[in-house]
Amino acid sequence: ICAIAHVTAKTMPHEDAECKRGSAPNIHDPATKELSVVVPSYNEENRLPLMMDEALDYLEKRQKQDLSFTYEVIVVNDGSKDQTAKVAEEYCKKYGSDKVRVISLEKNRGKGGAVRTGVFSSRGKKILMADADGATKFADIEKVEEGLKNLQPWPKGMAISCGSRAHLEKDSIAKRSYFRTLLMYGFHFLVWFLCVKEIRDTQCGFKLLTREAALQTFSNLHIERW
C-alpha cells in the first residue's frame, strides 16, 4: 500500500482553481472570518439545497446572537456534470458573495482535491469540512468546537477536532446487508491496524481545524482522491 501510494503520488498545484467572482483569498493571508465552511460537491444538485438551507439558517441565527461572529461557506464544485454550480450560485446571490462563495474546478479531482482547494481559499480562523449530503446535523458543530477547545493549549496554534457517528453504528448496521456490514468491519480493522487507533470514525466528513493546522495538513497532502 505504501509503495503504491508513493508511486502514484504527484505534486498538486495550489492555484489551479478560479472563483467566478474573482481571484480567491489564500490561507497564507491573515484570517478575516471566524469560521470557514468548506463543502466539496460533486453532482449534488439534489442534496446540496437541504444541507445549505440547514447550515445557513444556523449560521445566520448564530450571527444575530453574536455580532462578532463572522463566517463564510465555500462550495467547491468538483467538476460536476449536473447543475450543482448553478444551485450553489443561487445561495451566493441570496446571501452575498462575502458569505457564500463558489469555486468551480474544470475537471473532477476527487474529494481530497476539492477540500484542499476550498481550504487554501478560506479566510477563517477555524475551518470546517462538511459533506454536501448533510449526513451530519450542522448544529453539531458546537460539539466539535467544544472538542477543539478542550485540546488547548494548542501547540503552535494547531489542533483538529473530528466528528464521529460511531455511536450510531448499531442503527446503521440494522439497515445494511450482511455483505456491506462485513466490508465495513474489514475496512475499520485495516484503518485501525495500519493507520490510527484513537479515532473511531475516520470517515465522518465533519472535521474542524484551526487555520494553522489546516495549512500544515493540506500542504502535505499527496493524494487527491478517496
Could you walk me through the main structural features you see in this protein, from its secondary elements to its overall organization?
The protein has helices spanning 2-8, 48-65, 84-95, 111-120, 141-150, 169-173, 178-194, 211-219, and strands at residues 18-19, 33-41, 71-78, 100-105, 124-130, 160-162, 206-210. It has 226 residues and is an alpha/beta fold. The protein folds into two domains: 33-163 and 205-220, Spore Coat Polysaccharide Biosynthesis Protein SpsA, Chain A (Alpha-Beta Complex), CATH 3.90.550; 165-203, no CATH class. A seven-stranded mixed β-sheet has the order 1-4-3-2-5-7-6, with helices on both faces. Residues 14-22 have low confidence and may be disordered. Pfam families: Glycos_transf_2.
Notable traits:
single chain, 226 residues, alpha/beta, Spore Coat Polysaccharide Biosynthesis Protein SpsA, Chain A, 2 domains, seven-stranded mixed β-sheet, 8 helices, globular, Nucleotide-diphossugar_trans, transmembrane helix, signal-anchor, Glyco_trans_2-like, endoplasmic reticulum
